Amino acid sequence: xxxxxxxxxxxxxxxxxxxxxxxxxxxxxxxxxxxxxxxxxxxxxxxxxxxxxxxxxxxxxxxxxxxxxxxxxxxxxxxxxxxxxxxxxxxxxxxxxxxxxxxxxxxxxxxxxxxxxxxxxxxxxxxxxxxxxxxxxxxxxxxxxxxxxxxxxxxxxxxxxxxxxxxxxxxxxxxxxxxxxxxxxxxxxxxxxxxxxxxxxxxxxxxxxxxxxxxxxxxxxxxxxxxxxxxxxxxxxxxxxxxxxxxxxxxxxxxxxxxxxxxxxxxxxxxxxxxxxxxxxxxxxxxxxxxxxxxxxxxxxxxxxxxxxxxxxxxxxxxxxxxxxxxxxxxxxxxxxxxxxxxxxxxxxxxxxxxxxxxxxxxxxxxxxxxxxxxxxxxxxxxxxxxxxxxxxxxxxxxxxxxxxxxxxxxxxxxxxxxxxxxxxxxxxxxxxxxxxxxxxxxxxxxxxxxxxxxxxxxxxxxxxxxxxxxxxxxxxxxxxxxxxxxxxxxxxxxxxxxxxxxxxxxxxxxxxxxxxxxxxxxxxxxxxxxxxxxxxxxxxxxxxxxxxxxxxxxxxxxxxxxxxxxxxxxxxxxxxxxxxxxxxxxxxxxxxxxxxxxxxxxxxxxxxxxxxxxxxxxxxxxxxxxxxxxxxxxx
Length: 636
Hints:
Blueprint: E1 2-6, E2 46-55, E3 61-69, E4 75-82, H1 99-103, E5 108-113, H2 130-142, E6 147-156, H3 158-168, E7 174-180, E8 192-193, E9 196-197, H4 199-217, H5 221-232, H6 234-237, H7 258-265, H8 271-274, E10 290-294, H9 300-313, H10 317-321, E11 324-328, H11 345-348, H12 358-371, E12 383-388, E13 393-397, E14 406-413, E15 418-419, E16 422-423, E17 426-428, E18 439-443, E19 454-455, E20 465-466, E21 480-483, E22 491-505, E23 511-519, E24 525-534, E25 553-566, E26 571-577, E27 603-608, E28 616-622
Parallel strand pairs: 4-5, 4-6, 6-7, 10-11, 11-12
Antiparallel strand pairs: 1-2, 2-3, 3-5, 8-9, 12-13, 14-17, 14-28, 15-16, 18-27, 19-20, 21-26, 22-25, 22-27, 22-28, 23-24, 23-26
Helix pairs in contact: 2-3, 4-5
């Protein structure tokens, strides 16, 4: 089927190459609920052809919609490979401009359903086929009539993963990728975090998105309907154990979701996960990358690692020098659009300054790398553009961590336990000089600490995502806190954060969680970011090793990055506990193989903070006069 889907008001000669005309920016304010905006279209009329077949190396046929600009000049290709429906093209909720919009800027736009999803053939297995299929599709797209042979890719979340997996296969005609909200490793920072299962993300996503659509693709309407219904009642299932017998995913039927049970069975970062890891393959990626992330995104840590990994290990000088990272005040979807009803309220409160520059920036990026436009979208030096929350401004730097960052040690002092006098534990820049009694609390896997915000997926309306008040959490006796004194001046906190925690447990395996909190002068609180560590993975994610009950160990907990201007007279607080549910599966404390049993044990946890065991948090302080303001929204 071929249809004309958009006609520009005028045609300009030479629209297949060079710099696109500068339209009204897609960041122009629009009425809530209207997306994408009609403004900012390019000069080319566009026709659409649906279900164009591409045959993969093993004979499986994948289907794509092709949006063709009406021009006689050869044009570059922009490719999206999605498991979420080529008709949707990740337009909603409030993400990308439409494929027609990009094609109107004189690009050949291809949106393809990946294997076993949508209209495409083959059997779906998450991660498994997107390297080879991505390579084959890039080369097929580069050879389409009217293509100039250059291919760029875009898309968010798993659609970012399809780009990275294709790029690691090094297709010759791939010129650049623009992955958003996606990870560096599909074990660490995707399915698991610090060795613990990312329950609130993985189960609902597997049921209601990829599991149900894969069932529909193979003609199993009954299973598709059941999975959609179970996903709509996902909180009903979050307490179900053991995970290896999770009923909605049909553990006895290998046609439904064998990949889900593989994820449970492979609870360490073994060869199953390493075969797809991006962090192990940066040298295979030969193209510049524009990374898009959000401070509360489900895959923020991996997105930042992709930037630093490519700067250090990318496969060509052009790739290493051409990296750019943008981190905005966003969670996983609907980024930068106040009024969507999806973003956490404290993120939407950033207002117009936090609106997404992604569509204009992407187009400028493609204009440069696919059309040769000299538009300064890269400078020959890696770039980091980040939104400083609290100040609600954009800033830019040339490296991550930011140059001149002062990593400052703050040590636990005094008891972190709640008392009738309140929470008096302190964070100080001096090591405890005298012996201090440890703090203890009881961790019950059947009564876990509730999640309040965080970096889960996939929207703040359905899961623990974004900044949130911590008042209810801090009323619990199994949550310990230590707090700084009041800041004497506005203080920028931007970068990665580590907690070096001395702790013991009565269990052979347990979890410790850490959460960094901003405390306003009036005492109100919001989480900046959080982390977790399953103690069996204290020496690395490759294998689990039990701990010796009662023995103190020093654990390094990675709190995911943040950027926040701590106002004068405000404070920072660290929460330590052993659970964050449903963001993470509660550790049962038994030491049994993950997900195979419903058994649980309580555990007494001991936190040490004395001269011999100096527990601390390392904060990234950016000196006053650090990186300057960036220029967003982007113009072309």
